[in-house]
Amino acid sequence: MKRRSLSVAFAVSLCAIAALVGPAVHGSAVVAQIADTVSGTGAEPDATALFNDGRAIFRDDTFGDEAFWGGALKLHQAIEGSALGGVGGGVSPKTALSVGLKVDVDRLPAQLVAAIKAGNVDLNTPATTVALLKAKAVVGVVGSFGPANDKELTSVGISCALCHSTVDNSVAPGIGHRLDGWPNRDLNVGAIIDLAPDLSVVQSLLGVNRPTIDKVLKSWGPGKFDAELFLDGKAFRPDGKSAATLIPAAYGLAGVNLHTYTGWGSVPYWNAFVAVLEMHGQGDFTDTRLDNAKQFPVAAKAHFGHVRHSPDLVTPKLAALHYYQMSLSAPTAPPASFDAAAAARGQALFAGRANCISCHQATRFTEGGWNMHTGAEIGIDNFQADRSPDHRYRTTPLRGIGASRMKGGFYHDGRYATLNDVVAHYNMTLKLGLATADQNDLVQYLKSL
Ligand code: HEC
Ligand code: HEC
Predict the structure, then answer these.
(1) Architecture in CATH for domain 335-448
(2) Which helix (H) or strand (E) holds 5?
(3) N or C: which end of the chain has fewer CB within 10 A?
């Protein structure tokens, strides 16, 4: 019965799915805004096309990275399991959801959503995961099918949305409408990579064996990834904790100068970096800073600053991708999520006695210009900063911080569990002399941003 309802749903649906496009989170408002801004210049069609292209790239483009995730790591075989021609027990939807993967309900046919809600879909079989992949409904995971059998998963790739989108849980935990730009702080990237039957490419890049890789991947935990591991080979901090960082918000970035926690470059810089060096897409990437073998031994040896592919599947997409990201505004905090009177007092402190505004400048909540600081300036160690070319931390833009970034803690590695802890840290390190009530007011203000 369970299997039947699923396959019936799919038979009805597979051709209809192509027509289903997930609603834009901030999409229509942004398009309207763009159209207003450019009206009279004749640029409207280009703006809309860029937005739509960028959204499609952000959500579904793998830049040809199937060669890595499917080809080299054989991750699709682990998803299928031996019953479907792969290896091991396979990945059921239940397992997929438990490692933080999300399902986009707007990519599923209505009958299937109804069946899921009624508990009539078997969430314990890898066959259902493969069917969800076929429907392009697993956020950020892109399956390849056929050609002999269009139900056979032949490879798998990842898109930006894997880490930088989540869902609103409106159908069930992990299943709902897509939220682009929201960091997926449930996603256990290390556990997912560790499912791969073959990690020999990673082993030879880092010059270590599989058990060592397993230990590193297990150390990351939910919501974290280590983008610098493949440059410097440093998996652990001097204190023995994981060197991974939290997945940051990818919204609220318009008007912000440098990006990543340690300010590697602009959004298009980092997009090319990630698409080529982290996702292993087929594209070009240039950065002679990575030739510095002392700071980046792994990258320098592998010539990561001089990557060329033909055809280049990344560079031609950077404009649209950038445009879409700039359109992702931060979510506004629900009125019930903070105390408005306390937030108003907190705002006065932020701009006044606590002087947070000297770095988190209105209205982007980071500095215009070179928004970088040493660890010493904010009272923390310089380990993560020293893994980047400028040896500094970038002032984090704070919009949306209360609404969606609570999971996993704050600062680049989540070292502060709550906003209260962050404010208490500033109070101590910057000798602000704030009373407990003042600190609470500041927290309410942060929650309102
Ligand atoms: C495996 C998870 C993962 C994937 C896939 C991924 N990112 Fe990221 N992204 C991260 C992490 C982790 C960071 C923080 C890196 C750091 O600071 O060292 C980050 C940082 C960023 C930032 C900087 C945000 C800021 O704070 O200013 C942007 C922009 C971004 N990613 C965009 C993208 C785009 C576009 C793609 C697809 C081409 C992508 N990412 C793919 C995990 C991921
Ligand atoms: C000297 C510049 C500077 C000052 C002053 C400053 N900040 Fe920050 N802030 C930063 C930097 C840099 C980071 C990034 C730290 C990291 O990721 O490790 C940051 C991070 C944060 C974060 C964490 C954001 C996140 O998503 O993890 C919060 C919250 C924050 N600051 C609030 C404040 C408040 C409140 C004040 C005033 C009491 C303040 N900051 C004063 C530079 C500053």
Answers:
(1) Orthogonal Bundle (1.10)
(2) helix 2-17
(3) N
